[in-house]
Amino acid sequence: MTTIADPKAPRPPKPRPSRLTTRGNTELYGWVFMRASGVILIVLIFGHLFVNLVAGEGVSAIDFGFVAGKWASPFWQVWDLLMLWLAMIHGTNGVRTIINDYAERDGVRLALKASLYLAFVVVVVLGTLVIFTFDPCPAGSPADLLPSFCTA
């Protein structure tokens, strides 16, 4: 006969890990980072939305030329770069926490985290390259393929 423990019975206390087995304040720093980066991301995202949708002519004005003109300024390059990096670090840290909470087997946890970090690196590297190497008027391109604001 199988007996089920009384759900209202107090649980025995878990043994506390020794000082040598704790990981330090990594999780605390991650928690604080999530709060701080969330506040900064709100400012960056709403600034981005305001400039792109409210201050200009609305969503109909967003096209290749709008992005090219915006990224001609180092200010907007840094703004978008900060938004990309913070959003990716913030999201990766959140998904890492979810993986730690729900992946029970070590092998699955390792595979999920490895794919998460790989995706993070790919998106951050490619996004950074796009922001800083974007050239709307590449030299040697056929004039009929260039936007109207480029001088041939």
Morphology = elongated
Report the top-level CATH class of the domain at 32-134. Mainly Alpha
Number of helices: 4
Global structural class: mainly alpha
Cα distance, first to last residue? 87 Å
What is the radius of gyration?
24 Å
Helix content percent band: 55-70%
Q: What would the average pLDDT be, to the nearest integer? A: 86
* CATH topology value of the domain at 32-134: 3 helical TM bundles of succinate and fumarate reductases
Q: Architecture of the domain at 32-134 in CATH?
A: Up-down Bundle
Descriptive notes:
This protein has a domain at 32-134: Fumarate reductase/succinate dehydrogenase, transmembrane subunit (3 helical TM bundles of succinate and fumarate reductases, Up-down Bundle), CATH 1.20.1300.10. 61% of the residues lie in helices and 0% in strands. It has helices at residues 26-54, 64-70, 74-102, 106-133. Helix 3 (74-102) runs antiparallel to helix 4 (106-133). Keywords: Cell inner membrane, Cell membrane, Electron transport, Heme, Iron, Membrane, Metal-binding, Transmembrane, Transmembrane helix, Transport, Tricarboxylic acid cycle. Residues 1-21 are annotated as: Disordered. The chain crosses the membrane at residues 28-51, 71-89, 110-134. It comes from Cellulomonas terrae.
Notable traits:
about 150 residues, mainly alpha, 3 helical TM bundles of succinate and fumarate reductases, 4 helices, about 60% helix, about 0% strand, elongated, metal-binding, heme binding, transport, Succ_DH_anchor
Please describe the topology of this protein.
Blueprint: H1 26-54, H2 64-70, H3 74-102, H4 106-133
